[in-house]
Amino acid sequence: MTITASVTLTINGEDVTREIEPRETLADFLRRDMQLTGTHTGCEMGVCGACLVLVDGKATHGCLVFAVQAEGSTVETIEGLSERGIIGDIQAAFHERNALQCGFCTPGMLVTAHSMLAPPGVPTREEIRDALSGNYCRCTGYEAIVDAIEAVARQRAGEEVAA
Amino acid sequence: MKARAFRYVRPATIAEAFDAFAEAGGEASYLAGGHSLAPALALRLQAPDVLIDIAHIGALRGIVLDGDSLRIGALTRHAEALTDPHIAAHAPLLRMAAPHVAHPAIRNRGTLGGSVALADPAAEFPAVMLAMGAEMEIAGPDGHRRVPAEAFFLDLYQTALEPGELLVAFHVPIARPSHRWAFDEFARRRGDYAVIGAGVMLDMDGPTVAEARIAFLSAAATPVRARQAESCLAGRLLDAGAIADAQQALAGDLDPPDDEQTPAAMRLHLGRVLLGRLLGGLIDNAAVAA
Ligand SMILES: Cc1cc2nc3c(=O)[nH]c(=O)nc-3n(C[C@H](O)[C@H](O)[C@H](O)COP(=O)(O)OP(=O)(O)OC[C@H]3O[C@@H](n4cnc5c(N)ncnc54)[C@H](O)[C@@H]3O)c2cc1C
Ligand code: FES
Ligand code: FES
Q: How far does residue B72's CA lie from ligand 2's centre (Å)?
């Protein structure tokens, strides 16, 4: 017997109601039921950060939350953040600095970068590394990712950034 | 890497949660932040029939000053320990430990209650509760009771919580002007569980230690008080000699786990180094305050 439950939530601005299995994680729900495959699943145990989305504005691991727990919540995925254009500068900086290679980690990196850059001020490189400690990248060696995030922080603070 | 099928219920009150637990005939787990439980379900280390989501029970929330103690609801998120002004002012050791717990996104959802109920000996908050002398408020079908941290952590992942009971809140004695505190840990990478860590709470009488409370994590099967080290400090001037004695005494206090990466002797050594740094850092503080 399959146990199902109804869930109603807002995803990238759209109200959605679905009948789902409670054991389905939010990450699987977004990928399979909503075809929002920008949310990646790597470790499925909270370690790699590929599945990060915003739940009620806060960075959250899609693999550590069951979709039923998101009842009544507002979820924003990498697709929504991209379409709204609010991370355009971060995406451009990632592109310019070669802060991605295979791209598997990138949606999660961008969610972390977006969250950490939300408060005003320019974080130190140490603080950026700290914020990224739950995001694994197997390609870039992180240096370019830290560069990109630092560059955006400086740009947003109105500083000139050397190309 | 997927959880077994389960039923999901979302009670609004503690009484409803107990009813749901009773109905499930013991085959239920409470779900708070889910950040330890979800991985355990994915790995099939646990496979309950029912998950009881307690995250919407108002009575488990809130941080309020209550006379000489701060009452911190079990559902308080790790991230709130970093931002809440009451915690910063009255339970500063929690604030100091919080940045060491996991990563920012995990701190957004993980709860203090979940961390303490799980009682991972490598976790920061259980050890800090011990160092602060917190009391755990527990609710069961027969009412509420309070258990001091010393009597709460019983063995590896074993606590004083009976099946079906809920951790409701922590009652933390508020820090006074005579208190000095410090927390730190050694971890291989930021956000990793610590190789060893400790929280220290000293009640000073000028430059002399009136009372010391020291609790270690990753140093035994439970978070542990370093009682012999504490008694080396009590009634003494906080100086290099007293600190060296406390460091020596740790051998009798800690029973560090032994594994290939970190032999027990290495953990004990690192525990001594850490205690030396924590207490050394408080000497200056004490002198300034005197
Ligand atoms: C990648 C990763 C890294 C982590 N690193 C660290 C770290 O460095 N340090 C650290 O301390 N933790 C770490 N954690 C664990 C994290 O802090 C968890 O969030 C926390 O231990 C459990 O809190 P929770 O609210 O998520 O509990 P849940 O996962 O919901 O519950 C944990 C257990 O406690 C029980 N429970 C929960 N609340 C109550 C209650 N009020 N009353 C009775 N029982 C209850 C549940 O039934 C369950 O058995 C990490 C987790 C992950 C995924
Ligand atoms: S898939 Fe969620 S953290 Fe790796
Ligand atoms: S770009 Fe390949 S994992 Fe980061």
A: 30
